[in-house]
Amino acid sequence: MNDTTDRDWQALQELWRAQPxxxxxxxxxxxxxxxxxxxxxxxxxxxxxxxVGLCTYAIVIAARDxxxxxIFWALVVLVLVGWALSFSLANRRDLYCPPEExxxxxxxxxxxxxxxxxxxxxxxxxxxxxELAIFLSWELLALWGWLEPILTSASTPTLLAIAxxxxxxxxxxxxxxxxxxxxxxxxxxxxxxxxxxx
Length: 198
Fold this sequence. Notes:
198 residues
């Protein structure tokens, strides 16, 4: 090789050696991030199964006799399910694998997943509030005689379903929030330890 090429290679080698050596990702961090990823995939699959089931049910009910109220509720279900799925897809973007094989990247990914999980809880309550607002608006319009009421004297199952969904959503939210708080403490501590060691 000529002298210029040797100097270029030597400069490149020195630059490469000057780069900080990344320590391997600790097994505990890797294990926790992999577990988060499994939960993400299972959650996404469950969301799609529920969405397909809800949309199928709404379409079957609407196509049963093509009543305007049934068509309206089917459209509400389709719009809300579409909105929920679009949120879910956007919320899960960039959460499946770290951008590089480093401890910092794994910890940053875990912290991002925790933040997005909390965003999902907030969105679930927003979606539920909108659903209840639509339901209550329908009932108000029914009081004025513009629509057929949903709640009648035989509406105990409907009210029971609303109460059950509210309790399940509250329990799920509490579980996710407490678990994410625990994970947040753990990964924040690991992030601090990792930044101290660098």
